[in-house]
Amino acid sequence: MTAAARPLPRAQAGRRSTRRRLFWLAAGLALLALLCALSVAVGTRDVGGNDIAAALRGRVDTIARAAVAARIPRTVLAALAGAALGVAGAVMQGVTRNPLADPGILGVNMGASLAVAVAVAFFGISSAQAYVWVAVAGAGATAVFVYAVGSLGRGGPTPLKLALAGVATSVAFVSLVLAVMLSHSEVAGGLQSWQIGGVGGATFARMVHVLPFLAAGFAISLGCARKLNSLALGDDMAAGLGERVAPARGLAALGAVLLCGATTAICGPIAFVGLMVPHLCRLLVGVDHRWLLPFSALAGACLLIASDIAGRLIARPSELDVGIVTAFVGAPFFIWIVRRARVREL
């Protein structure tokens, strides 16, 4: 084989990999479109195509069309929240090089939840915009705290220490949220339903306040894809390639915090989406974050919409909040990841 012929197999492999990724991208977009249609059509009252078309034109003169009008923002919110949590999970796993990293497991979601609960109970905040700022601040403070605790001792911030610090912090914050609700009965009802995590009652007016935070989070996270690829090689190798490790890690973490805080502010804490989605996407598109992050957004949107549909069908004519459904699915997945990763070696 001549020297000129040697790169050919690698080029062919690269083209096959790109074609495979494009195939899965088209399949994911088709699945997302199908799930969006089902989310609008399926619920306590099933509706047909004529009612959906009429509701899209602004006609809500029947119960079925009014149901469609209420489900459209709910579907949009589920897609946005799922995409945000999927990308945040992939970024956190890349920043910490921890296969167990997830906004829920690392306690970031519960940090945002506790901040909102304290602000509502003690400071009387009520505007959607204030919710977002408080949730983002709580998520950021918790991320710093968990990383600091996980960095103590010999070996620095190992995956196992970060996971244990996050779980312990999350459990402690759940207890504090319950204490706040028990001592402030006037806000306990609203906080309790929000604490479960769901997309019911969504409106476009409420979503407007979180869109700038989500847009900034997506932009920062996607812009850090190459940096995350460098960090995956290890700090020394990344520094040798010219990457400024600490700023790169901090910027990527900021994107994840913005996505987690904004999502928690409007939906409540939803766990396990950021854990499951990146692992599944790696099986399809590999570890390159330039592909992994967009696919995580797409898969996260599909997962949360599907979970919302399942919650409506399982408990018909009532419904289960999406946070309950993702917990049922995610807990076994978490156990499988721990066993597969051989937690003793983390």
From TrEMBL:
Official protein name in the record: FecCD family ABC transporter permease
Residue spans crossing the bilayer: 21-42, 75-92, 104-125, 131-150, 162-184, 204-225, 246-271, 291-310, 322-339
SUPFAM superfamilies the record matches: ABC transporter involved in vitamin B12 uptake, BtuC
Membrane topology: Multi-pass membrane protein
Short name of one Pfam family: FecCD
Principal location class: membrane
Keywords: Cell membrane, Membrane, Transmembrane, Transmembrane helix, Transport
Organism (species): Paracoccus angustae
PANTHER family: FE(3+) DICITRATE TRANSPORT SYSTEM PERMEASE PROTEIN FECC-RELATED, FERRIC ENTEROBACTIN TRANSPORT SYSTEM PERMEASE PROTEIN
Family to which this protein belongs: Belongs to the binding-protein-dependent transport system permease family. FecCD subfamily.
